[in-house]
Design goal:
heterodimer; A: alpha+beta; 2 domains; 4-stranded antiparallel β-sheet; elongated; B: 225 residues; alpha/beta; 10 strands; 33% helix; globular
Chain lengths: 302, 225
Amino acid sequence: MESLAIYRVFKNGLRNFWRNILLSTAATLIMVITLMILTVTAFVLNLSNTTIKKVQERVDVSAFFNQQVSEKQILSIKSDIEQLPETQSVTYISADQALADFKARNANNSAILDSLGEFDQNILPASLQVKAKSLDQYPQIEQALNADQYKPFISKVNFEDNRAVIDRLSHLLHTFKEIGLGLAALFCFIAILVIFNTIRLTIYNRREEVEIMRLVGATNWYIRWPFIIESILYSVFAAVITFVLLIPIWNYVIPSIGGFLGLPASQVVGFDLAEMFLAQLLLALVLGVLSSLFAIRKYLRV
Amino acid sequence: MIQFQNVTKKYGTHNALDNVNLRIEPGEFVSVVGQSGAGKSTLLKLIFAEEPVDSGKLLIDGIDIHELADRDIPYLRRKMGVVFQDMKLLPRRTAFENVAFAMEVAGYSREKIQRDVPKILEIVGIAEKMQNFPDEMSGGEKQRVAIARALAHKPILLLADEPTGNLDEINSNEILDLLHKINQLGTTVMLATHARDLVNKVKKRVITIEKGHIINDQQHGLYQL
């Protein structure tokens, strides 16, 4: 390919784009909508995964020990529990640590702190915090802690069973996910159809030119590339427009969701702006170029 | 330069060309005559590699053109120029731009295009209408532009398929004179036509086709149907 031919191919592609500006706009807008839906779906998917993980992290079983149980005893029970196949981790919280945590949690509440002073010794018990590998394994762990051999040491096993709530939440988010993916697929399909038809119309508009190009010995790529460049232009414009439209969401909506969940904004979506733009551009190019190649194959007998 | 060896071309079950043998030398001026549907256009289309040969060999400069890969066909076509009855000019471009378009496609530089197009239009006798659009020209003038376009990439062979089909007698004669002039400048010319008077004036080689067969081939022929 000589540079002169490349220049002319680009010039022709640009000219096609501007001469059919209404068609080009329609193709670009459909692509913008598709990219928007895909991006928002990606947000939701990521957000739902983060949320579920976050909620799951908060679930654990705690075993509180009687005051007189020695630390050695507790650590031996800890290693017993660690042997269980369901256990992911066991954290030992000593009585001193529990007191410190409690004070920290209630740092602003002088009434509570004052009432602590009424006791001449630490009334908070030592405890083991156990996490299971998966949600449905908590009952087994709870059972193990309630076994007769531990009865003399453990005063209370605390497991708040909010699995039902978590199940419902993850079910809901799963539904969101499916709707999002379904819409995304639908709009990808529509975008492909619209671009396909747009390119087909440009080919039709330029059928005389194409015929003459063939007569005077234009190579196939010289005939084809302007159409491909036209669809690359739709894709690039669409990616840029989508990016600009998403900036307000990025700047206002994401941080407020992050604030709600107690997460930094970067963790809410799981990707940064540059990554998002590149992904959109790539996807737009794939959609645009695929559908134009398809139209060219079908309607350009070169 | 062109050699048909037992060439057959079918459309469905109908033989448009049936076992044709033909040899055309460089620099010849050949008229191909016959009624509509006799196979004149098919003959030209095969040379231009627009349609594939069904059997036999078609050699141009010793190369069997229907053995050529698809991607090489454009380069074969740059050795030829074609002119049609319906001219096929781009309506929204001037005479200059129509010729320049062909040169752009063939990869000529902008400077060369600016320099050559006026010369070519001069040769076909339409330099003064350079900036006119096809709608502002007569049939004869449009055909001259089409011929100029066919000549733009300096072909060694000019194929003219009924170039005078839409023109009156005076214009037809002028186009014929122009084709002669081009031939004298060294380009081989093949003219397919059913215009009797035109052919009888040529006094050069005439090939007569009927129902896909060459029934007559005379060095100084007349229209014989």
